[in-house]
Design goal:
Elements: E1 18-23, H1 26-43, E2 48-49, H2 60-69, E3 71-78, H3 86-100, E4 105-110, H4 115-120, H5 124-135, H6 140-154, E5 159-160, H7 165-171
Parallel strand pairs: 1-2, 1-3, 3-4, 4-5
Helix pairs in contact: 1-7, 2-3, 3-6
Length: 172
């Protein structure tokens, strides 16, 4: 994973605080894969944002949005329950917006999940989207934004975890 050269003064990467932002569902991957990934990136000297950097008392959503705006590359770790979290989905919408506006790279990481489930919102992703719809807290526009973000991210070139999670960290 090569970052932009710091010698290019007009490059937007130079203005970013974080090299990498990791988006993930904590309950699924925090204690295993994501922590290994974060450690591996740290060993290679990438300044990585992960949500446990948020301090007690901080405004969580505001801190996340600031970190997203201050990041160059995004690793979105799609796992079994990623779509069950409205936080993850809202975060993904923001990440995809940054990607569409240019200047950032988004790399999907499919952790023990079929990429087509994310792309087409089937399997656990379809179930999660139906649950969000039934809860009634989310309007049609938000639901469509989530679906579009999932599809767009899943269509990007990324990594699929058919191997051991520790080895996958080295591939990334």
């Amino acid at each position: 994973m090569a970052m932009a050269s710091s010698s290019t003064s007009s490059n937007t990467f130079d203005l970013k605080k974080y090299d990498v932002f990791i988006s993930f569902r904590g309950d699924d991957t925090r204690a295993g894969f994501t922590s290994h990934l974060h450690a591996a990136l740290g060993r290679t000297k990438y300044n990585t944002y992960i949500d446990y950097r948020i301090q007690k008392g901080d405004q969580v959503w505001a801190e996340l949005m600031k970190a997203i705006k201050d990041s160059t590359l995004f690793l979105v770790v799609f796992s079994e329950n990623y779509a069950s979290s409205t936080w993850c989905l809202n975060e993904l919408v923001e990440i995809i917006e940054c990607h569409k506006n240019g200047g950032v790279v988004v790399i999907p990481v499919f952790y023990q999940i079929d990429p087509s489930h994310v792309r087409k919102q089937t399997g656990s992703y379809g179930t999660a989207m139906e649950k969000h719809k039934k809860q009634g807290n989310n309007d049609d526009k938000m639901m469509q934004n989530w679906k579009n973000a999932l599809s767009q991210a899943a269509n990007l070139s990324g990594f699929d975890s058919t191997s051991y999670r520790y080895l996958m960290c080295f591939k990334i």
